[in-house]
Amino acid sequence: MNTQKLWPEAMLFDLDGTLFQTETLLLPAYHATFDELRARGFYEGETPPEERILGALGMLLEHIWMRVMPEAPLATHQEADRLLIKYQVQGLKEGRGVLYEGVADTLQKLHDNGVRLFVASNGLETYVREVIAAKGLGHLFEGLYSAGEYLTRSKVDLVRIALEKHGIQSAWMVGDRSSDVEAGLRNQLTVVACDYAGFREAGELDGAHIRIRHFADILTHLT
């Protein structure tokens, strides 16, 4: 039996909480960011709880800082943007940050079977590109799409841009937050919800067509 026809033409993946265990890179950079903000007079008081930024993963950066430090002025948010990416890139160069189990092998199998692979992330362009490069995944992806590069206000628009630019007719959207589910459904894609990162809130993955507990489980839904 030929099962290849069941495979989509393409898959679009969120990055944080889907491919990449973000907290392994983010949290050291987060604390370093607030240490420098305090040292330079941009911020006073204790570093906000880690749960605030972890719970905001998947949001646009401007919304993340509104959640993490809503009382701080825009200038502080902008400086936090700059510092966080600086410390994250530095951490990547020092070998910090890991992929979820099975990500590299599963992506390779999808690529070898002709599935076109893309990243669609609400993160900054530099961050997305640096993570993919540092983890040796660049050769597997046809395109890396980030809100930072395309200045999109929602992942719905970012995914639409990727689909239109590459003439994709059949695709799956794979992610761990409500923004991923919405982006997939509103672009008429099959939605795969990754239920292993622990960043989501109750009900966020409602509406997804498939829910997985391990990344490699994607393959079981293809064959």
UniProtKB/TrEMBL annotation:
GO cellular component: cytosol
E.C. no: 3.-.-.-
UniProt GO MF annotations: phosphoglycolate phosphatase activity
Catalytic class of the enzyme: hydrolase
One GO BP: DNA repair
Keywords: Hydrolase
The name this protein goes by in its record: HAD family hydrolase
Organism encoding this protein: Paenibacillus roseopurpureus
